[in-house]
């Protein structure tokens, strides 16, 4: 139900092979219906945290050493990624990751296959993605490797939407994109949140951007969550403005 905890991360710690401690105490809650931004500079541990949530940490040589990840009330630290996806926890990590030689449309369809949807349902879901991202409809027959960076990001998000997420997790959707394209993507994510109640957890290095688009913001620093609050409150705090927004 709206307002209930959908994702809870508690006292999470993680290391990579060779003993690199990437997370050393992260607490984070995402409630149903919220947009939560995960802010923090390069190397703060954002990607590691999102990998841990999607259970993709071991695939990159890391592992959880302490703490808990719960989704929809269940401990999911050992739940396979495809099972998480089928239960609505869908992640777009490492930037865009499209299948570059497949067309935009084939990439989108790939996102719907895990659900075992029939042709009619896949078609309806495709039309919904094209209505959200009209540029993708125009480029549907092109190899994803040949469309712009923004369109690749839209393809990756569209592919995730084909899986009918309840919680969509995105890693720096603005990375390498022009401000206008970033705004377009955030506008569409905001509309999905308002109209469909889609819950979002978005890692974002650009704190100003995060505070503009999220309801709440959690700041990571060297593997720890050091600050959490409503975006509207953080935007007006002098210390935040000085440290993170570069404003006097
Ligand atoms: P970025 O914006 O660069 O992605 P981030 O906040 O997402 O930064 P992480 O990528 O999670 O930070 O990195 C946290 C720490 O873990 C860093 O010290 C990084 O070098 C290290 N790290 C990340 N991935 C790996 C890996 N696969 N193997 C070893 N160390 C890693």
UniProtKB/TrEMBL annotation:
Signal peptide boundaries: none
GO MF entries: ATP binding
Cross-referenced InterPro entries: AAA+_ATPase, ABC_transporter-like_ATP-bd, BCAA_Transport_ATP-bd_LivF, P-loop_NTPase
Keyword annotations of the record: Amino-acid transport, ATP-binding, Nucleotide-binding, Transport
Keyword Translocase in annotation: no
Database matches in Pfam families: ABC_tran
Highest taxon in the source lineage: Bacteria
Limits of the ABC transporter domain: 7-247
PANTHER family the UniProt entry points to: HIGH-AFFINITY BRANCHED-CHAIN AMINO ACID TRANSPORT ATP-BINDING PROTEIN LIVF
Protein family (similarity comment): Belongs to the ABC transporter superfamily.
This protein's name: Branched-chain amino acid transport system ATP-binding protein
The organism of origin for this protein: Methylobacterium aerolatum
Lineage: Bacteria, Pseudomonadati, Pseudomonadota, Alphaproteobacteria, Hyphomicrobiales
